[in-house]
Amino acid sequence: MLDTCKPKSACNLPFVYNKKINTAGTSNADVPLADPGMYQLDITLRRGQSLAARDRGGTSDPYVKFKIGGKEVFRSKIIHKNLNPIWEEKACILVEHLREPLYIKVFDYDFGLQDDFMGSAFLDLTQLELNRPTDVTLTLKDPHYPDHYLGIILLSVILTPKEGEHRDVFQTQSLRLSDVHRKSHLWRGIVSITLIEGRDLKAMDSNGLSDPYVKFRLGHQKYKSKIMPKTLNPQWREQFDFHLYEERGGIIDITAWDKDAGKRDDFIGRCQVDLSALSREQTHKLELQLEEGEGHLVLLVTLTASATVSISDLSVNSLEDQKEREEILRRYSPLRIFHNLKDVGFLQVKVIRAEGLMVADVTGKSDPFCVVELNNDRLLTHTVYKNLNPEWNKIFTFNIKDIHSVLEVTVYDEDRDRSADFLGKVAIPLLSIQNGEQKAYVLKNKQLTGPTKGVIYLEIDVIFNAVKASLRTLIPKEQKYIEEENRLSKQLLLRNFIRMKRCVMVLVNAAYYVNSCFDWDSPPRSLAAFVLFLFVVWNFELYMIPLVLLLLLTWNYFLIISGKDNRQRDTVVEDMLEDEEEEDDKDDKDSEKKGFINKIYAIQEVCISVQNILDEVASFGERIKNTFNWTVPFLSWLAIVALCVFTVILYFIPLRYIVLVWGINKFTKKLRSPYAIDNNELLDFLSRVPSDVQVVQYQELKPDPSHSPCKRKKNNLG
After folding, report:
1. Transmembrane ranges (predicted)?
2. CB within 8 A of 595, min separation 6: which ones?
3. Residue 42 and residue 139 share a domain
4. Which residues have a Cβ under 8 Å from the Cβ of 655 and sit 6 or more positions away?
5. Are both 352 and 442 inside the same structural domain?
6. Residues 297 and 337 in one domain
7. Alpha-helical runs (H) found in 166-309
8. Residues 386 and 455 grouped into a single domain
9. What is the pLDDT of residues 298-343, one digit of tens each?
């Protein structure tokens, strides 16, 4: 019944009432509310004053939503770190019934779908005089805390009547609303940043040193570097990318901190990078002086064109257009191996519909929308209101930088003035995708360990260059910028300990077995071992080490294809994950009671470190096992190729030549590439192999037969 001339988004939330409005002029309350005519409401969002602080730094990143009749008709841009923002944005809204007030809601933007409510107000349209500009001051309120002062919003509005012929613009403008929503989530470029080093930083600890780390922020995107202990001249050598949403560039805020255990981290200094001053497609070396502190930071910054990313309706399908499909296949053909090594492949995701979703609202319905993530690339659909069987029918395309990435599709319920409610999630490794097949994926819980209510129908296509994908496997894995912070959990600590114990016990049992051969517990076995020992030692050559590993991989492969799969489903890990979920639920309910561990912050931090170390050690052992178990065939084949190469090299080339080449490379690497990022190819390879926990999280659950497409229920539009 309404729409906008200049909409901003289609991501809507239910409204909140606030009945304070200051207006001037004669009221049009006498106009019949059933009047079938149209009205045009022109609004200028001026500014906000004394808004509520929602971030740790005492600031907020406010933006404003306008709604009529529960439908979002305008969303402002985000003003970062400002409690007195100036927007000066205009919106043109078509209104059919003046009885529907205009709701204004202010939020603090947070990247992880945790936007904080900052207050709401409403504008009674019946109190506006027709054809007369009116300045409006709205006091923001929180319905749950009506006595709290949350600041004011200043508007300029004018209401004018329109003829009935404007009714036919509804559908067209609704489509435009979705178009603008999609564009607001697309980026126009990539900012590649390499944090090289710090020089002469300020000493913050009593020993005359610091434990520095650096935080970066560009809009809603954040990155935190690793901590370098006890140094004033840290060498980070870290690389990461930000998305560039604005044509003119943007400002990167950089802050340096000293890590302190058991108390708040010390501030070392800050600096900024103005991207609008940097030329594109060129690497810039920047030496930045830290303000409010001492020392310098050295960065490499490169601005490049955007990768392939888009949102469209099902009618716009790149892979169904023969010409576009051929162009995509040509881009990732084997002949273009060395053309843009970062561009590994193309991913197209059709988000079709969901069925039988969880009820999240008191009305017995939900307002679901879907978030599609690939590493740090994130796009989302529109919201379907009051529906447990929504149809989105959207196509998302992504540029693949690592074929070992995992596609995450999460369904949320849009909630009133709060962060969105979680409804379900699936995680799909790209290498497990069967192209062009529409599948019903059972939605899982947050931990991806068990089912939740509902299924989601997806159709996914992956096209990639296998050689590029193999080469990218040997470089560091891209880290997600927004991840949940680790918290201390008794169940998680126990699980990681059991996983590590199982890995260690493999080595212990092997040692017992060898020792039993020496003790002649079984004479035939000891005799066979003694003969094998003499034969191997007498004929041993270095190339036999990779050759044995190669034979082990080959043996497991033939066991699998012959139907004698020795891989067992890890029910122990599954049980532990389910127990952990129950423990998390219990912790959430009893969070107010467990004050003791929160008081001993330093001990908690140590426990979290131990918990993470146990996880890393256990994951390392499990990844080695899963490489030889052919858990990811692509990686196992890649290991076979590498082992064949090493076997041939060690067989034909003397060891001293190999060691000589290795030493020359290591000694001259810093001279040849002073800003190169150090990495270990073997560890980078293993980081792509899933651990047992990830294997459980990524495995698909069998859908309920009642969710079959042929038994699909008709959508209830509420």
Report:
1. 527-560, 634-662
2. none
3. yes
4. 542
5. yes
6. no
7. 170-184
8. yes
9. 999 988 765 556 676 776 676 777 888 888 888 888 888 877 777 8
Instruction: Single out the residue of 377, 321, 335 nearest to residue 186, CA to CA.
Output: 377
Give the residue numbers spanning the domain of 73. Answer: 38-162
In a 13 Å sphere around the CA of 667, the CA atoms on its Cβ side amount to: 6
DSSP notation for 38-78: EEEEEEEEEEEESPPP-STTS---EEEEEEETTEEEEEPPP
Residue with tokens 């069967």: 434
What backbone torsions phi and psi does residue 673 show, to the nearest 5 degrees?
Answer: -135, 85
- 457 falls within a domain: yes
pLDDT at 24: 34
Domain membership flag for residue 203: yes
Q: What is the CATH number of the domain that holds 458?
A: 2.60.40.150
Q: Within 10 Å of residue 635's Cβ, how many Cβ atoms?
A: 23
**Helix, strand, coil percentages, rounded to 5, for the chain:** 30, 30, 40
Return the residue matching tokens 């149209």: 38
Q: Do 106 and 48 contact (CB within 8 A), yes or no?
A: yes
Tell me the DSSP string of 209-224: ---EEEEEEETTEEEE
Whether the Cβ atoms of residue 376 and residue 241 lie closer than 8 Å to each other: yes
Question: Number of folded domains in the chain?
Answer: 4
717, with CB counted inside 10 A (0-12, 13-18, 19+), is: exposed
> Using CA atoms, how far apart are residues 489 and 585, in angstroms rounded to an integer?
11
CA separation (Å) from 157 to 174, 332, 580, 654?
22, 53, 54, 83
Radius of gyration of the chain (CA): 30
Sign (positive or negative) of CA dihedral 667, 673, 675, 677 = negative
Residue 218 to residue 393: CA distance in whole angstroms: 31
Measured CA to CA in angstroms, residue 90 lies from 8, 288, 485, 666 at distances of 11, 38, 39, 60
- CA count, 13 A, side-chain hemisphere, 350: 21
Mean pLDDT within 272-285: 85
Average pLDDT over residues 559-586: 61
The predicted structure's pLDDT at residue 334:
84
Quick one: which of 61, 65, 58 has its CA closest to 15? 65
Q: What is the 3-state secondary structure (H, E, C) of 637-697?
A: HHHHHHHHHHHHHHHHCCHHHHHHHHHHHHHHHHHHCCCCCCCCHHHHHHHHCCCHHHHHH
What is the rounded distance in angstroms from the CA atom of residue 384 to the CA atom of residue 369?
7
* Helix ranges (DSSP H) in 286-356: 322-331
Question: In Å, what is the CA distance from 630 to each residue of 310, 386, 557, 624, 636?
Answer: 34, 45, 7, 10, 6
Same domain, 651 and 679: yes
pLDDT tens-digit map of 159-214: 888 754 444 443 333 333 344 444 445 566 788 898 999 999 999 888 889 999 99
CA separation (Å) from 609 to 154, 265, 393, 510?
49, 17, 44, 29
Q: With respect to residue 311, please indicate whether it lies within any of the assigned structural domains.
A: no
DSSP-based three-state secondary structure for 189: strand
The residues near 158 (Cβ < 8 Å, ≥ 6 apart) are: 41, 42, 131, 132, 133, 134
Q: Quote the CA–CA distance of 419 and 312 in Å, as a whole number.
A: 26
Answer yes or no: do 365 and 414 share one domain. yes
**Cβ neighbours of residue 31 under 8 Å, at least 6 residues apart?**
98, 126, 130
Task: Yes or no: say if 393 and 313 are a contact pair by the CB < 8 Å rule.
Answer: yes
